[in-house]
Write a structure and sequence with these properties.
With about 350 residues, this protein is of the alpha/beta class. The protein has 2 domains: about 200 residues, Alanine racemase (TIM Barrel, Alpha-Beta Barrel); about 120 residues, Lyase, Ornithine Decarboxylase, Chain A, domain 1. It contains 11 helices and 18 strands. It has an 8-stranded parallel β-barrel with strand order 2-3-4-5-6-7-8-9, surrounded by 6 helices. Strand 8, helix 9 and strand 9 form a beta-alpha-beta unit. The longest helix is centred in the first third of the chain and has 15 residues. It is elongated. About 45% of the residues are buried.
């Protein structure tokens, strides 16, 4: 018999969340962000679930774009980091991919490539994130060079917000972007999940929802996923495989980091860090057992973790269902307790965990 752990992926929830993005986007088109294997959910099944709904897909992996085209997906595909070598450009042309251009070497490579077709291009402006993109004093030169080139089918402008999910917000970066973009009459794409949900005036012509598509709030300390009408796509499930009675003073797990202060009942769950559960999740991380929220106890092991059954009915025994995150136990709450973000939980799902797809 296989271990009882599995990840259940609900594609109807993905489509629902895309509908939430659509409502907030208004007249803007949607790039559905499916990078990192669709945030750990599976690139091809996620893309197929959204094919009839979204306007295009955005990712960073050229191999992923190739897989989408091989699967017969003909919608526009935006490569958020563009190309990494000039030698990739013929493939961009062949697959009709949209590169994000963020460095002058990319401008030079594209202009000199002599491609058989013109490519739509996204030109990225650095407005304060200070990762990728042209600074304002470089931007005009790059734009003018591409605008005059015979290799560009269309130009769009983009940037990325550093604080759309924080108190600081987007005002400063959006002002910097508009100082460069306004008056150029080019399509713009600036809104990620947080900006799309919090600052609808930032929608522009295209938006780039990512984490919200998978049912997580981009700012869980302000609004929960449920409050935003987002549904979990991934539910990580397992079962109790053992139950133990402890007496006061008994310690739990490696290092004995949790000590029972009084007699208590605990359960052992078939899930550990080798399945993608965060090893650093402390005692008190929420977990759903037999439909009731309780807490983890002690240190997470490679294949197992311990949960508190003290306040649960005695009938909760071996075989009782457990939700590590997902339906009934939001990934955002688990991530917050573990000092991380839901993005990391989803992306860390291990290959050994069986995946069950629900449409």
């Amino acid at each position: 018999m296989p271990r009882p752990i599995r990840a259940r992926l609900d594609w109807s929830a993905l489509r629902h969340n895309h509908g939430v993005a659509r409502r907030h986007a208004g007249k803007a088109n949607i790039w559905s962000v499916v990078k990192a294997d669709a945030y750990g959910h599976g690139l091809l099944p996620a893309a197929r679930a959204l094919m009839g709904a979204t306007d295009g897909f955005a990712l960073v992996e050229l191999e992923g774009a190739m897989a989408l085209r091989d699967a017969g997906i003909n919608q526009p595909i935006l490569l958020l980091e563009g190309f990494y070598q000039a030698e990739e450009l013929p493939l961009f042309a062949d697959l009709a991919l949209v590169p994000a251009i963020h460095s002058m070497w990319q401008v030079d490579a594209l202009v000199e490539a002599r491609l058989p077709v013109r490519l739509p291009v996204y030109l990225k402006l650095n407005t304060g994130m200070n990762r990728l993109g042209f600074n304002p004093d470089e931007f005009a030169t790059a734009l003018a060079r591409l605008d005059a080139a015979d290799c560009v089918a269309s130009l769009s402008l983009m940037t990325h917000f550093a604080d759309a999910d924080e108190e600081r917000g987007i005002a400063e970066q959006l002002t910097a972007f508009r100082a460069v973009a306004d008056g150029r009459r080019l399509p713009i794409c600036v809104a990620n999940s947080a900006a799309l949900l919090r600052f609808e005036y930032s929608t522009g012509d295209w938006v780039r929802p990512g984490i919200m598509l998978y049912g997580s709030s981009p700012y869980p300390s302000v609004q929960s996923a449920a409050e935003l009408d987002l549904r979990p796509v991934m539910t990580l499930e397992s079962e109790l495989i053992a139950v133990r009675e402890l007496k006061a003073g008994d310690r739990i797990g490696y290092g004995g980091s949790f000590t029972a202060e009084e007699p208590m009942r605990i359960g052992i769950v078939a899930c550990g860090y080798a399945d993608g559960y965060p090893r650093h999740a402390p005692t008190g991380t929420p977990v759903l057992v037999a439909g009731r929220l309780t807490r983890t106890l002690g240190r997470v092991s490679m294949d197992k973790l311990c949960v508190d059954l003290s306040d649960l009915l005695p009938s909760v025994d071996v075989g009782a269902p457990v939700v590590l995150w997902g339906e009934g136990n939001p990934a955002d709450d688990v991530a917050t307790a573990a000092g991380t973000v839901a993005y990391e939980l989803f992306c860390a799902l291990a290959p050994r965990v069986p995946v069950i797809e629900v449409n």
